[in-house]
Write a structure and sequence with these properties.
This protein has 12 helices and 10 strands. The protein is α/β, with parallel strands linked by helices and 286 residues long. The chain is globular and about 55 Å long. The structure holds NADP nicotinamide-adenine-dinucleotide phosphate.
Length: 286
């Protein structure tokens, strides 16, 4: 990705999706500001990139944070019922600050009623299309890091709270970062909706086989209980309900997608799941 002179603001810059993106853009020489909601988070990003403190619940702070920005990227917090309000505030602030383009981090198959956190994103997509802004919508599939949450490395068991036989299309986290960085820094992505999914359809059983090859020891897969998957996640009760709805949906349908758009945006072949494992776990088996 060529270094650009655009001033890009990343909302959610201290989070799991935002921080690697901020680091990637800053490393490439792109003028980027990370929007964080506290001084503590700003301190954590010191030396990574410029930061600006604002709150998605406070429209005036957003208008100040967006001053002079050409592109705003909205990465919403996970399982947050306030996402539509936050989006309305950010869209209004971006409009009044004269931002050139608003990029929204949605999700694959946003319009899925059985998963409230997906369906909320479909409402935000409509809000954006009805605004006066130029926009781009990215709809990522499950990240590779997400199923790996369910791996118990000591017992060598993969225990997702859903069927091991449903199809997904996990996207390598670094491929996602690189693709979104291209979409933010390059021209010509206005009014596009991009489904970003990995290169191959995989079940948890397939992922388990890849893990067995990578680790060199047998890994077993079995569907686990939602309670076990939720342990230690520190979700609020409403977020927990939404996670349970997601597990039930995955159990019944999986979340398949297609990798062709990702390849187009990257300008190269995306990483396979086996290649992602090799990067994460090291070694040359994959
Ligand atoms: N994981 C996947 O497989 C996947 C796939 C597709 C889409 N997604 C979507 O990706 C999005 C981001 O997920 P994530 O895991 O990166 O989220 P995350 O780690 O929770 O990051 C969200 C960030 O938003 C910040 N934030 C929360 N409330 C705020 C407020 N009122 N004002 C300003 N900032 C606020 C948080 O700040 P603090 O650090 O101060 O808490 C946090 O840094 C989610 O919407 C998710 O649905 C995820």
């Amino acid at each position: 990705m060529p270094g650009g002179s655009q001033d890009i603001v990343i909302i959610g810059a201290a989070g799991r999706t935002g921080r690697p993106l901020l680091e990637h853009l800053a490393r490439g020489g792109t003028a980027v500001r990370g929007l964080v909601r506290s001084e503590k988070r700003a301190q954590e990003l010191r030396g990574v990139a410029a930061t600006v403190v604002a709150d998605l619940a406070d429209p005036a702070s957003l208008t100040r944070a967006f001053a002079g920005a050409s592109v705003v990227h909205f990465i919403p917090p996970l399982f947050d019922k306030a996402e539509e309000t936050y989006a309305a505030n950010a869209i209004e602030a971006a409009t009044s600050a004269g931002v050139g383009r608003f990029v929204y981090h949605s999700v694959l198959h946003a319009d899925t009623r059985q998963m409230p956190h997906h369906h909320r994103k479909a409402a935000v997509e409509r809000m954006l299309r009805d605004s006066d802004l130029a926009w781009t919508i990215v709809q990522p599939a499950m990240y590779v890091s997400t199923p790996l949450l369910y791996l118990d490395p000591r017992a060598m068991v993969f225990r997702p709270p859903f069927s091991t036989r449903r199809l997904f299309r996990p996207i390598d986290n670094e491929d996602l970062t690189a693709a979104v960085a291209n979409i933010l820094a390059q021209q010509g992505h206005e009014f596009a909706v991009y489904e970003l999914a990995g290169p191959s359809p995989l079940t948890i059983d397939d992922m388990t086989a890849a893990l067995t090859t990578q680790i060199g020891k047998p890994v077993r897969a079995e569907a686990g209980a939602p309670e076990a998957a939720l342990r230690g996640r520190n979700f609020a009760p409403e977020a927990e309900q939404e996670a349970r709805a997601m597990y039930a949906y995955y159990d019944a349908h999986g979340l398949p997608g297609n990798g062709r758009v990702l390849e187009m945006i990257l300008g190269r072949a995306p990483r396979s799941f086996a290649q992602s494992l090799a990067v994460r776990f090291g070694g040359s088996k994959a």
